[in-house]
Design goal:
With 254 residues, the chain is α+β, with helices and mostly antiparallel strands. Helix content is 39%, strand content 22%. It folds into two domains: 89 residues, Winged helix-like DNA-binding domain superfamily/Winged helix DNA-binding domain (Arc Repressor Mutant, subunit A, Orthogonal Bundle), CATH 1.10.10.10; 151 residues, no CATH class. It contains nine helices and twelve strands. Helix 2 crosses helix 3 and helix 7 packs across helix 8. This is ArsR family transcriptional regulator. Keywords: Plasmid.
Amino acid sequence: MITKGAVVDQGRRWQLTSRDLELLGWVGRWRGVTSPQIARGFDLSVKVVERRMRALSELGLVEGRRMLADVPRVHWLTRAGMTAVGIHGDVARPKLAELHHDLAVVDVAHFIERNRRHLVVTEREIRRREPNPAAGHEWRLYDGVEMTAGLGTGGLKFPDLASVRLEEMDVVWAHELERTRKDVPRLTRLMLSYVWSDAVTYVIYWTWPELYDNTMRAAEAANASARELGRGPAAIGVRVWEPSLLDSLESGTA
């Protein structure tokens, strides 16, 4: 564990703090996050977050890169950063082709946590708890709640996010964010992978407005198949996702 200070930022001396470990642990939940997202997650100013990210970068615990001109610098953990907070597995780096989706998933998680008051687990956390998906499918969601990754016609499936409410720890929600159009039969098969999971209670597909009708058709088909298979009532819902929903959280109108 790193305990010594480091000289960074034009000679200023930084030392790793408990808050830095919290920041590192949170960054490690994602493939990449921006300073505004970190600031929102911790109720800090963007300026403070950027200063800490520079210090942690000088310590070799995070990397940061401006991947697109219209997107803030994206941060992720190095191997040393993962070790510092006890995270195992491969180092995850953001991929340009998936950047917009991955950053939007972080925003959706913020909305679910604050508007719906859910506890959220990310796809990276799910995969870390499932070291060998081919051999088994159970992972733990907070206080002993177990979930099985989706099986069935869609194959093994890991959601973008999963969540529970504190008052309903046995009710597990899986969340997917749709940013690109898929044909309805393929999307229906993917949705049906959750139908075969006994531990997934509900599934929400968050979709861009222009994809809502297409996603809804797939959900209706999947729910119809679920009823025919005796898998209970309609479990798959569709919600429109727009970044402006985050503004409603800040204004208290969500």
